[in-house]
Amino acid sequence: MKAVRFHAPGDVRIEDVPEPTPGPGDVKIRVRNCSTCGTDVKISKFGHHHIHPPRVMGHEIAGEVVETGAEVTGWTPGDRVQVIAAIPCGKCAECRRGRMTVCPNQESMGYHYEGGFAQYLVVPAKVLAVDGLNRIPEGVGFAEASVAEPLACVLNGQELARVGPGDDVVVVGSGPIGCLHVRLARARGAARVFLVELNRARLDLAAGLVNPDAAICGAEVDPVDEILKLTDGRGADVIITAAASGAAQEQALQMAARQGRISFFGGLPKDNPIISVDSNLVHYRELTIVGANGSSPAHNAEALRLIATGSVPVSDLITHRLPLDQAIDAFGVVARGEAIKVTIEP
Ligand SMILES: [Zn+2]
Ligand SMILES: [Zn+2]
């Protein structure tokens, strides 16, 4: 079969590899869609400490069951499925407390296990053990289902930041994740959602799709001033930084209303993770700063439900559908910010 394999930083190849065989507790699927994200670009350029090459990349996976191991029950060939990306152990102190997104033993599809940029994929027994294989609801296509994984991460972020009815929400960064944040905030009852982005072309592309209450180009105006103006000086209830930018995180604190919540949704580069925080701003304004680390299996199931019910539409965010042999070009499209969501159809 054809697969996209990481060999070394800057060395990703589309090649013929043997079709995988499921073990007794595994399920083999025919991959129909595996969507790309910024992480794939990062891996292709810099590698990742959990990836021992060669490794099939891809973690936003949807497909259909073609074969089940002898010990597997409940799944049959032809079942349409979505696969979680982050696999919690289900047994440690955090997992037992229901905090599966911060499981210290977490493993991932496309990192510890072969990923979805391939014609076939083995879903490991560990995924089944934590309810990480989801049936795709009727009416939801494979491409949309593949977006359940990033939407699940966005859902985790907004739960932690307690986005709710009546909130004014700022989303910084207008990539696919930023667009999903805008849509989910609306589904959760936000009063107004403002979108901030440095790149004018990217902002216009995203704003045309998700219609924020204001689209603010950070290269043309001061986003802090703009948000204060739009909120009569009060600031926003929630600010979500969906960009790998320390400056954006520092600005987020300046935009926050009293008792505001700030989500550092996007991580910072490993070699530059320090920002400065006015501690008194946090103290007197009673601010909450939260992080976000992937999603739990339950978040994935809920994300599929949000897509199926139309609460969070995603099909129009999929701007590019490419065959597997164009996967390397797809990473380029993602890296240059020319697309919202690029999905691969192996
Ligand atoms: Zn991703
Ligand atoms: Zn665990």
Automatic annotation (TrEMBL):
Entry keyword set: Metal-binding, Oxidoreductase, Zinc
Similarity comment text for this entry: Belongs to the zinc-containing alcohol dehydrogenase family.
Domain Enoyl reductase (ER): 7-344
Classification via SUPFAM superfamilies: GroES-like, NAD(P)-binding Rossmann-fold domains
CDD domains (UniProt xref): iditol_2_DH_like
Pfam families: ADH_N, ADH_zinc_N
Gene3D superfamilies tied to this protein: Medium-chain alcohol dehydrogenases, catalytic domain, NAD(P)-binding Rossmann-like Domain
Alphabetized SMART domains for the sequence: PKS_ER
Protein's UniProt name: Zinc-dependent dehydrogenase
Transmembrane segments: none
Taxonomic classification: Bacteria, Bacillati, Actinomycetota, Actinomycetes, Micromonosporales
Required cofactor names: Zn(2+)
